[in-house]
Amino acid sequence: MIVIPAIDLLENQAVRLYQGDYQKKTIYSDAPWNLVADFTSQGAELIHLVDLDGAKLGKPGNETAIRKIQENSKVKLELGGGIRNLDTLKFYDNLGIDRFILGTSAVIDPKLVDDALVLYGVDRIVVGVDAKDGFVKTQGWEKDVGLRFEDFMERIHIQGVRHVIFTDISLDGTLQGPNFYSYEWILSKYPFQLIASGGVSSIEDLEVLSKIGSGEMYGAITGKAIYEGKIDLRAAVDFCKKT
Q1: CATH number at residue 75
Q2: Which of 105, 125, 164, 206 is least enclosed, having the fewest CB within 10 Å?
Q3: Active-site residue 8, yes or no?
Q4: Is 136 helix (H, G, I), strand (E, B) or coil?
Q5: Distance between CA atoms of 4 and 15, rounded to whole angstroms?
């Protein structure tokens, strides 16, 4: 299992939201590209980027920061938020982004997932499943489309998706620990390369995640816990390499 530091971008700043609420943000850096160098020096192999403006607008909203992050990065980057069509995928591919996260678009436009898998391959396409109270949320976690996350998981499995990020929105940014039950359920049913997101706040959380199933969890995303000193990234990376 790998630890994946998160950089959430809003107006080209690195921020964290509380339970996905845009009105409850904390700004951590005006130069998020500098965070990449710091995370890399501590052993990160993959960095998770979210374009929060893009998630709401449905188009890229933090191009300045994303370009500088890519230019200064020596590790792989995965990016989500506002990727709703093939033109945006092509734009980020040309920019040098390694993995693309489809969230809202995967819910409302299944054909885009099919096309993206063909064009870019299963290892570069990640589907973000963002849920609250059992239902999938879209458009920056602000819209409920009445789709249970279990049904959505079945759909993307049939489509051939391999990489999935599951976020329990109610725990995101709370430092209260992940939704272990959901991850156990997902891995008991599907052979996804699953990434945990939401509430990961301690080495103990990482230890539990690493033991789910038969040690099948691919990775764990953590953001606020790193920024606020709850998790030492270097120690977390070293721990996960041993598990």
Answers
A1: 3.20.20.70
A2: 164
A3: yes
A4: strand
A5: 16
**Distance of alpha carbon 199 from the chain centroid:** 13
Main-chain dihedrals φ then ψ at residue 194, nearest 5 degrees: -95, 135
Length of the chain: 243
Q: Which of 14, 16, 35 is nearest to 25 (CA)?
A: 16
State how far the Cα of 11 lies from the Cα of 14, in Å rounded to an integer.
Answer: 8
Q: Which amino acid is at 204?
A: E
Q: Give the span between the Cα atoms of 223 and 231, in whole angstroms.
A: 9
User: Which H or E run contains 151?
Assistant: helix 149-159
Q: What range does the domain containing 51 cover?
A: 2-242
DSSP-based three-state secondary structure for 15: strand
Report d(CA 192, CA 184) in Å as an integer. 12
- Rounded distance between C-alpha atoms, residue 84 and residue 103, angstroms: 9
How much is the pTM? 0.93
Q: Give residue-wise pLDDT tens across range 57-105.
A: 888 999 999 999 999 899 999 999 999 999 999 999 999 999 999 999 9
- Give how many domains the chain has, as a whole number: 1
pLDDT band at 174 (very low <50, low <70, confident <90, very high): low
Q: Active site residue: 8, 51, 168, 205, which one?
A: 8
133 annotated active-site: no
Catalytic position from the list 130, 168, 172, 205? 130
What is the token pair recorded at 20?
């996905």
Calculated CA dihedral for residues 37, 234, 207, 25, nearest 10 degrees:
-50
First-to-final CA distance of the chain: 7
Report d(CA 159, CA 236) in Å as an integer: 33
